[in-house]
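Example 325, ligand NAP.
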Amino acid sequence: MKILAPDVPFDLDFPSLLPDGGASFAPGGTDTVATYAMGEPVPEEHTDAEVLITWSNPPKVLADAARRLTRLRWIQTLSAGPDLVLRAGFAPDVVIASGQSLHDDTVTEHTLALILASVRRIDASLAAQREHRWAKEIAFAQADPVTDREYTLDGARVTIWGFGSIALRLAPLLTALGAEVTGVASRAGERSGYPVVGPDGLDALLAETDLLVSLLPAIPATQHILDARLLSLLPPTARFVNVGRGATVDEAALVDALRSGRLAGAALDVMETEPLPEASPLWDVPNLILTPHVAGGRPRRAARFVADQLTAWRQGGDLRNVVAR
Ligand SMILES: NC(=O)c1ccc[n+]([C@@H]2O[C@H](COP(=O)([O-])OP(=O)(O)OC[C@H]3O[C@@H](n4cnc5c(N)ncnc54)[C@H](OP(=O)(O)O)[C@@H]3O)[C@@H](O)[C@H]2O)c1
């Protein structure tokens, strides 16, 4: 079996972690692992691969692989969101497994950083710092008893839309800061002690949300799902943080809501078009923090994960994170 592994800047030495210590990959063994450049078409001599590991491969490289790797049986992406691989056009019998869980720690930390930066107005302090200005108005605003909920998570009603792997890591940290966390997922029901509503419970929940955090995947059902109507249901003191995927947000509606003051603030790590075009209105919207899709950074413990997946695959066991197609 030939496995194609990307040229990643982190340790992906999975053969040495296999139960046989990688013997099947040694010279003369039954398996081979070949490293390929993620940004380039797969070289002709490797188009016979049966397993393709991907990470940040550009869409056109994935589409090219879908056309040329005719013996492929399994794609293991190291991204938590499999949207790019799903859209590349791989044959329906090719198993696609995601990197769900590999980014939970870093995305949680980044989400928390964006939430706190927005709630504590770090963006306003940084802007004032650039002007060498002591922005006392931030402290005065914090002291306002009517709006104090805007400036603290203690008692804030936080809705996490997309209550999956990352949300389960994030929610207890928000709880520790005093927030009341409710999830929204495809299916309603309690998860790890948190109430979770289904899509039909969203409208009522938004009206009572101080902070909306989106960790939604990009799938057809979530395309521009946060639109003008849903934004209008949020209280004007609410904030929105998106660390899921940019395609889930109607960005024009978000810009309108922020410019008109119908939404107090927002922070986005993901945008519909990335890199964000220079002419995008998002760059200059008030009370909006942008980070350049850096929440995940790189998968953690990826070699161990791939070794376990490969062991399961060889033994005919269940692969983790198989994506329904
Ligand atoms: N910014 C970054 O660098 C970065 C890094 C990693 C991941 N991400 C993004 O974060 C997303 C979440 O990652 P994860 O590992 O937590 O994924 P996950 O475990 O698959 O969780 C996704 C959640 O979304 C829910 N969901 C799906 N469609 C929905 C809909 N139409 N309405 C309501 N809920 C819906 C799912 O509900 P059920 O549980 O009921 O199925 C699930 O709870 C990824 O898909 C990726 O796009 C971003």
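Summary: DSSP finds ten helices and twelve strands in the chain.
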